[in-house]
Design a protein that fits this description.
By secondary structure, the chain is of the alpha+beta class. It has one domain: 2-Layer Sandwich (Alpha-Beta Plaits), CATH 3.30.70.60. The protein has four helices and four strands; from the N terminus they run H-H-E-H-E-E-H-E. The chain has helices at residues 2-6, 16-30, 49-58, 96-107, and strands at 33-42, 66-76, 79-89, 111-121. It has a four-stranded antiparallel sheet with strand order 2-3-1-4, covered by helices on one side. The chain is elongated, with a radius of gyration of 20 Å. It starts with a helix and ends with a strand.
Length: 122
């Protein structure tokens, strides 16, 4: 709140909006997030990685997964994989690791295997 006062915003600390804002900020600060790095292995070397990446990015929005930076990494003999970062809100009733590793590979027919290679709780 001091930041707003320094910027010249008038704050009425007795108002309902002020208390609602503080409550939302404390709830948001209490939320736990995680960041993962995922390897997506295509079914074969004929798979278009750009199309596969678009399909992967379209997956998981219902679970609150936000996709980040990605790159295409060679494995061997003109076979490539996608390494992509993602973040999500940790919820006790949703197992995002299972969703990423199992459901993503089952849902997309062009995916051979999905592995979480790094995970950090923020």
């Amino acid at each position: 709140m001091k930041m707003f006062e320094k910027l010249g915003f008038a704050i009425d600390k007795s108002s309902h909006d002020y208390h609602l804002f503080c409550e939302r900020m404390s709830l948001q600060a209490a939320r736990e997030f995680a960041a993962v790095v995922v390897e997506v292995h295509p079914e074969s070397d004929e798979v278009d990685l750009k199309t596969l990446e678009v399909d992967v990015r379209g997956f998981g929005s219902g679970y609150g997964i936000v996709w980040g930076e990605s790159r295409h990494v060679p494995i061997a003999f003109d076979v490539w994989k996608i390494v992509i970062a993602a973040s999500y809100e940790v919820k006790p009733d949703v197992d995002v690791e299972f969703i990423l590793e199992e459901e993503l590979a089952e849902t997309l027919s062009l995916v051979s295997r999905v592995e979480i290679i790094s995970q950090n709780h923020l």
